[in-house]
């Protein structure tokens, strides 16, 4: 497989990736950031997988059960033989209104016609395949365990012959059956009927969830799939939102830009929450706000740019030398040293979400006082630090600079704090904070504008363009029709656009010039074209970019400029939230045009 032709399944506790041929090549249990059980994605030889193999005479077709996170892989041989795998992780409401979301994966085998045959490749490699994993057939299950690095076990229950499963022998499907992989041994032995009930309950849960997403005139299918993908990257227990479900998928094949994304970046998560709550999914937003409140115990504690999904503050980075990496792209990293970086933009992004939440939920919002406390704390920190250089949105690991985007987001922090103060009728704070907001704005207008380029550039005094400056309009810093913004969009296009795809920037960073396009930047560019009035051109770019998604409509972090293959961690929250923003703009435009048409009629 040359592309990231995978589907994601999950239950807001963990996730798994399944290839278009039905092989589970990535799965961490019991949680998103736990060591892998299957990691063929990162090492085809030793990573471990859970595959279903059929003869070459079978055709394979993969799709999602509509408006759910249940992935169906259909195997058909001629007219006679056909079966489906319905892959999912259980998630549904219990009687006490809590969720049933155990650390397990279910592969429900549905017989459609005839007597189809398959073989199972069941090869768990616990603890990132760091030691030997052995599997044993017990009375009710197959137990797999390792104790080389650390003791760990998983259990596989199945309605099929366990000997044949473990030995990879041919299995004839004569009735519906199942595989249930679980981190914890079950108290009651699963049956096919019980597993089917789990499937139906999970289907109903996802369909109910999707029903809360509004229906859009255009790109409705893409918006719903992206919203479901963002939901799958949210971690119920704490409210954290992950940047992606994987680690170390490279931005460029054979290079070293490989990072662990199974963490909660304040920036990415806040942007996700803003979009998801605008789609009407308030509970995800409330849980995330609680995650933030729980992180900030001391009033003068500076926010880290990222945290572990269970609120861990230390995310020590280490390299797994024994894994060869995706398509041979080493190193494979777990943990992420970026947690120690200073990025001043996170305050503005977080403040933007707090303002959204307070204005949406009104002041009776639970934790209103705490959010007001955080607002005051953010203003205090921004006032103290906005004039300092930082690492910027792209996390340059070397020098600190005065990045335009960071400054704009410092302005955003104060602007939104003032708006919150207005909602809460805190007049004295408004008077106190307004001069600071004006001072930051003046500083940006004077120092970020490059007369020669006729554009706002990457950092103060720089002539390099950067896609992040396109967001100046989104955050309300500048009007879309302002000549300075229009000429900035055109300068970004001239310098950073390559065959309809965007570089984040082209100046060399710590690892040389990037050779892949950062997907969110292309979406930002499309949005900017739309906002400055180039709507048809924007739509063409959008439809072209959508065609680069995988067979299920999913995006990773990057797209290769030449081959258009997906690269980087997958699926990427950033890419899907920006897809939703663009799609909604086009859909709203279509609705407005329809209204005008009907008025003319």
Automatic annotation (TrEMBL):
InterPro entries for the chain: 6-hairpin_glycosidase_sf, 6hp_glycosidase-like_sf, GH15-like, Trehalase-like_N
Pfam family, one: Glyco_hydro_15
Domain GH15-like: 223-583
GO biological process, one term: carbohydrate metabolic process
All residue ranges annotated as the Trehalase-like N-terminal domain in the record: 8-134
Keywords: Hydrolase
Single GO molecular function: hydrolase activity, hydrolyzing O-glycosyl compounds
Entry keyword rRNA processing: no
PANTHER family per the UniProt record, alphabetical: GLUCAN 1,4-ALPHA-GLUCOSIDASE, TREHALASE
Name by which UniProt lists this protein: Glycoside hydrolase 15-related protein
